[in-house]
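tokens incoming
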């Protein structure tokens, strides 16, 4: 039968009001310890041995054998842990209903140590105190048995209603409810744990358990020297069994030392990898910030996707005319700022038409210039001057050739260099 399926099996409790999840709540701890002491005093009063086995235990008597989580954490690694908590009561969390935590009362049947497939302990934390263990409690409620982690055990004392439901559930299952005799035996077990005295064998067992859990610190150099001394002693005594055992233990120790060294190297490599990854992420973030800054500057300068401008393209440096002066109007007229379409390059067809227009205007100007008559008196060039300085200054070094007459009109038209004489001959 499921523990959380029946209203008789579980009693809804407000966890926050009871403080069961507050690890450092000294008031709750003192209240629980005070209730347990009062329950022990009440259990010591008013009944004899002949009435213990058959009479049901009262609520105050049952509270004297209740184990809160803090007490389990204090004893969890002791050698007497499994013996002293057997048949004691615990308040177990079995889930939530309507947003409230549900608790039931159960009896501790035993302790189970969980291990992985490779044989190593499967550790977990029992609470906020940082206690780690691989032990779980095998809890019994009626005929149902289920393992629970110690982290699910409540720190608060169970209520009168929860205890009444627990006894009613046992009677409903045709089982004997909790009696005064059960309470007496559990109290004796708990007293044994409180006054336990350690022997050398117990200390050795504790050290071995810590070593198996990986909590004991081992000085590899000291342990290796100790095993070497034991090997030499076994060789001197011709104890082959002990010799093989010590050699095997030394080999395991060397293997453990090699694994630890490998773990340290792996940790160093992991640290370097994490540093490289952190630097790479920092560089990426810097590049992102620089990119955002460039986008902000480009947006401020008008380099947006709508303007078809690209910050990495060549800037346009072609001069733009904002106004021009007309002959009829001496006052300059300001032109509006050209739009993006005006600033864009013109089409090749428009450029070709403009070039042809300018060429036609130049041709007309040259034709008009050719029809203008020039009346130049060159007779003064024949007047005597010192070394022909005047003609040389006006017509250049080859001034005599410039004033020579040409009789052949075809020669005049075909020559590449025109003189005054040839020009007058052409227009006459």
């Amino acid at each position: 039968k499921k523990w959380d399926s029946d209203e008789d099996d579980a009693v809804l409790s407000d966890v926050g009001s009871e403080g069961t999840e507050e690890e450092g709540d000294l008031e709750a701890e003192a209240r629980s310890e005070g209730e347990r002491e009062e329950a022990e005093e009440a259990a010591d009063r008013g009944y004899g041995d002949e009435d213990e086995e058959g009479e049901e235990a009262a609520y105050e008597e049952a509270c004297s054998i209740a184990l809160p989580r803090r007490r389990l954490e204090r004893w969890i690694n002791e050698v007497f842990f499994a013996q002293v908590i057997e048949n004691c009561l615990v308040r177990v969390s079995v889930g939530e209903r309507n947003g409230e935590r549900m608790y039931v009362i159960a009896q501790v049947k035993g302790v189970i140590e969980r291990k992985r497939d490779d044989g190593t302990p499967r550790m977990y934390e029992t609470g906020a105190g940082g206690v780690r263990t691989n032990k779980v409690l095998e809890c019994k409620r009626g005929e149902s048995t289920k393992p629970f982690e110690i982290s699910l055990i409540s720190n608060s004392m169970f209520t009168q209603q929860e205890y009444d439901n627990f006894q009613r559930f046992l009677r409903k299952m045709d089982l004997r409810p909790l009696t005064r005799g059960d309470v007496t035996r559990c109290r004796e077990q708990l007293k044994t744990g409180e006054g336990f005295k350690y022997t050398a064998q117990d200390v050795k067992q504790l050290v071995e358990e810590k070593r198996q859990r990986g909590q004991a610190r081992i000085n590899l150099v000291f342990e290796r020297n100790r095993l070497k001394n034991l090997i030499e002693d076994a060789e001197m005594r011709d104890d082959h069994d002990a010799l093989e055992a010590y050699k095997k233990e030394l080999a395991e120790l060397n293997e453990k030392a090699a694994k630890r060294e490998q773990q340290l190297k792996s940790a160093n490599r992991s640290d370097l990898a994490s540093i490289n990854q952190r630097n790479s992420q920092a560089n990426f973030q810097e590049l992102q910030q620089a990119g955002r800054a460039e986008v902000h500057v480009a947006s401020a300068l008008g380099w947006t996707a709508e303007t078809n401008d690209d910050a990495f393209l060549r800037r346009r440096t072609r001069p733009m005319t904002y106004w021009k002066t007309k002959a009829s109007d001496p006052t300059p007229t300001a032109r509006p700022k050209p739009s993006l379409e005006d600033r864009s390059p013109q089409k090749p067809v428009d450029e070709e038409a403009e070039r042809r227009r300018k060429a036609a205007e130049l041709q007309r100007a040259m034709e008009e210039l050719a029809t203008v008559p020039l009346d130049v008196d060159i007779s003064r060039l024949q007047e005597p001057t010192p070394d022909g300085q005047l003609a040389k200054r006006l017509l250049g070094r080859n001034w005599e050739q410039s004033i020579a007459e040409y009789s052949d009109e075809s020669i005049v038209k075909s020559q590449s260099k025109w003189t005054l004489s040839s020009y007058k001959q052409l227009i006459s």
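note: The chain has three domains: 11-210, 220-262, 346-427.
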